[in-house]
């Protein structure tokens, strides 16, 4: 069997990209969308190793005000992934409005379990409060920089964490995340600005190296760990059948 591909659990990719260009990334990509309108375009695609999400980015005024529960619900049937959604304390969108949108999304996900990639910039405590009120399976906190108490709370809520190279500056945070809850990400094009590798979706070998170093693992052990964590996540959310066949086959062989 071919070697395991790297997993990028959170990246932004132009939905107009060609299938050939995606294939050349040689990675499993969980591609976020920022709005319902973008998701409508992205979910018309069928790619071998890219999973397209349904998003309503908290930092974008147009995405938040363009959100409707009905439109989001219809798209949810077509993808195993919700993202990017969450809260942003620096957004021009009032936080109460963001919380209302996120709560509607989480209620939909309670009914139809999905992997949910959550943004929490400058709103960590508020996000955890919303998750407490509307608990879900499959929450993935992306680019997490919460403190020890916040991380412990998130772990207790069952959250996973996707980490990028920008988080290498916060080893104290990375050490607090249980190994069985870790996923790798680029958050391309924002989260890999400090990478010395080519800046593109799927290029997470530097993140794998950081994880391996912190936990005394070989790099290939770190990648296998991430795949096993993805298997756990898809099992918990019962989203396995919604993944592209190439990814399902690989997960089934673990």
Report a brief summary of the structure.
The protein is 40% helix and 14% strand. It has 254 residues and is α/β, with parallel strands linked by helices.
Could you explain how this protein is built, in words?
The protein has 254 residues and is α/β, with parallel strands linked by helices. The chain has one domain: Metal-dependent hydrolases (TIM Barrel). The protein has eleven helices and eight strands. The protein has a five-stranded parallel sheet with strand order 4-5-6-7-8, with helices on both faces. The chain has a three-stranded parallel sheet with strand order 1-2-3. Strand 5, helix 6 and strand 6 form a beta-alpha-beta unit. Helix 9 packs across helix 10. The termini are close together. 47% of the residues are buried.
What keywords describe this structure?
TIM Barrel; three-stranded parallel β-sheet; 11 helices; about 40% helix; globular
- According to CATH, what is the class? Alpha Beta
Q: Strand-and-helix sequence, N→C?
A: EHEHEHHEHEHEHEHEHHH
What is the helix fraction of residues, given as a range?
Answer: 40-55%
Rg from Cα: 17 Å
The termini sit apart by 11 Å
User: CATH topology, anyone?
Assistant: TIM Barrel
Overall average residue pLDDT = 95
The major beta sheet can be summarized as: 5 strands, parallel
Counting structural domains, the number is 1
Q: Which band does the percent of strand residues land in?
A: 5-15%
């Amino acid at each position: 069997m071919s070697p395991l591909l790297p997993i990028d659990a959170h990246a932004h990719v132009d939905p107009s990209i060609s299938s050939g260009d995606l294939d050349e990334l040689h990675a499993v990509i969980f591609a976020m969308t920022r709005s319902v309108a973008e998701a409508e375009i992205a979910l018309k695609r069928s790619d071998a190793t890219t999973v397209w999400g349904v998003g309503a980015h908290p930092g974008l005024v147009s995405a938040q005000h363009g959100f409707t529960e009905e439109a989001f619900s219809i798209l949810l049937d077509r993808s195993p992934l919700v993202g990017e959604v969450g809260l942003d304390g620096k957004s021009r969108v009032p936080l109460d409005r963001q919380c209302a949108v996120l709560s509607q999304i989480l209620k939909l996900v309670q009914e139809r379990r999905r992997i949910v990639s959550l943004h929490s910039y400058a709103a960590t405590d508020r996000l955890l409060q919303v998750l407490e009120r509307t608990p879900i399976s499959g929450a993935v906190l992306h680019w997490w920089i919460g403190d020890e108490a916040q991380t412990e709370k998130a772990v207790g809520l069952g959250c996973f964490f996707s980490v990028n190279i920008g988080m290498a500056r916060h080893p104290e945070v990375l050490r607090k995340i249980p190994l069985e809850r870790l996923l790798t990400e680029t958050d391309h094009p924002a989260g890999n600005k400090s990478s010395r590798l080519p800046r593109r979706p799927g290029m997470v070998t530097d993140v794998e190296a950081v994880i391996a170093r912190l936990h005394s693992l070989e790099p290939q052990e770190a990648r296998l760990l991430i795949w096993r964590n993805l298997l756990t996540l898809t099992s918990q959310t019962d989203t396995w059948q919604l993944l592209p066949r190439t990814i399902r086959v690989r997960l089934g062989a673990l």
